[in-house]
Design brief:
It contains 10 helices and no strands. Helix 5 packs parallel to helix 8 and helix 9 packs antiparallel against helix 10. The protein has 2 domains: 79 residues, Tetracycline Repressor, domain 2 (Orthogonal Bundle); 134 residues, Tetracycline Repressor, domain 2, CATH 1.10.357.10. The chain is mostly helical. Helix content is 62%, strand content 0%. InterPro entries: Homeodomain-like_sf (IPR009057), HTH-type_TetR-like_transc_reg (IPR050109), HTH_TetR (IPR001647), MftR_C (IPR041347). This is Regulatory protein TetR.
């Protein structure tokens, strides 16, 4: 299973634009680490910081000149690395944006780690929305999500991000219920939650992507609407 980390979410919050993505990428701190440290190693943090920088430049070029006209070599040149280094991190130019597409989803899953056992899912997210802890998404991320609806290759990367999250959601729900991640019921519930998170992100991006004042309250509304629809099951 692909590693699914939550270390890069700060890189895509705020509404300052693509430049903020690189500046807020995971920091590289010097100092020894031990096997018991929860933090990633120095090498891992450097690798993830570079992946976010590549992703930011890829999105900038895709938005400026289109996906088709952008080459992997151009992305590498914008980052200041060789094309060979770029291809060591990503198999295709479209896959370069995966860290940015995954980050918001990873944050939502991270929030679920604090989900109290005596609180329903909808009530829990309603409480989160009321406390204002949901971050705003950078405009460049909203542009990217909208691009996934028209570019098949980017769409595949967006769906890959959610596919990568499915086992993590399944394990989380299984621990909560005492079931097994392999149980069909758990798989269906994980897929339903995953789909609700994706639909909420897409709805927000298409409805509010051009609104500079849209922030946490609008994100919360889209998320809660999606979760309410998911909780209805299939009333057909």
């Amino acid at each position: 299973m692909r590693h699914f980390s939550v270390t890069g979410y700060a890189a895509v919050t705020g509404r300052e634009g693509a430049g903020a993505i690189v500046r807020e990428a995971p920091s590289v701190e010097h100092g020894p680490t031990t096997q018991t440290d929860a933090r990633p190693s120095l090498a891992q943090r450097r690798k993830e910081a570079l992946r976010f920088e590549i992703a930011a430049e890829a999105v900038r070029l895709f938005a400026a000149q289109g996906v088709t006209a952008t080459t992997g070599e151009q992305i590498a040149q914008a980052v200041g690395i060789s094309a060979r280094t770029l291809w060591r991190h990503f198999p295709t130019k479209e896959s370069c944006v995966l860290p940015l597409l995954s980050a918001g989803l990873e944050s939502a899953i991270d929030q679920l780690g604090d989900w109290p056992p005596d609180t329903g899912l909808l009530d829990y997210f309603t409480g989160l929305c009321r406390t204002g802890v949901l971050p705003a998404a950078a405009p460049v991320i909203l542009d990217l999500i909208r691009m996934t609806s028209t570019d098949p290759a980017l769409r595949a990367v967006w769906l890959q991000a959610h596919d990568d999250a499915l086992p993590v959601l399944g394990e989380l729900l299984a621990r909560r219920t005492g079931g097994s991640p392999g149980d069909l019921r758990i798989k269906v519930h994980a897929a339903t939650l995953n789909g609700a998170l994706r639909a909420a992100a897409e709805d927000f991006a298409h409805r509010y992507g051009d609104d500079p004042d849209a922030a946490g309250s609008e994100i919360a509304a889209c998320l809660l609407d999606a979760l309410r629809a998911a909780s209805e099951g299939l009333p057909y």
